[in-house]
Amino acid sequence: MRDRPITKSSRFLIAAAILLAGVILLGFAVVGGWMQAVDLRISTDLVLHVGKSDPAFISFMQWASWIGGGTPRWIIVIGLTALVWRWSGPRAAVALAGASLLSNLASSLLKLAFGVSRPDLIPHLDHQTSFSYPSGHATSAAVVYLLLAWLVPPRWRRAAWSLAGAMILLNGASRMMLGVHWASDIVGGTMLGAAFALLGAAWVRRGRAAA
Asked: The pTM is what?
């Protein structure tokens, strides 16, 4: 009897599980102080860069951070969900909306579980009240734009992957430059968002295979 081949959706699920395990392990490394030297070095370099920047650049970083969180984030998710429904059907739209909501909930729970303090190198250039690890902005950017890139029609896929890369990098850089996140927060949030994007993509693929 031949072994069943591993399907692409199964590979997505395995990759998601590995990423989720990585988020947990990195969180323990952060709490244990093993990332402190690296985080401090990266954040110090970026904060010094911000300190030497003109107000227009800082305003741009604040704008980039603003569209990646809070109400603007959910407006973008709603708009993209409507487009995905039109392009790829209701199951894909549910995957995008559901993965966005569940990843946000997971990020909030992990923040409470690890209780990592925000950087205090400079006065925060964006108001924050929650814990630091993992970054909710990084989580959102990864899950929304990576899943979007998997769900759009093939003719737009290259542009969607470019958009995903740009938004992930821009969100992560802005959060560190504004002094509200460590580099490890961004890495953990990106892995968390990518894991939920993979879960959403796997769910869509299984639905199409069963149709």
From this structure: 0.93
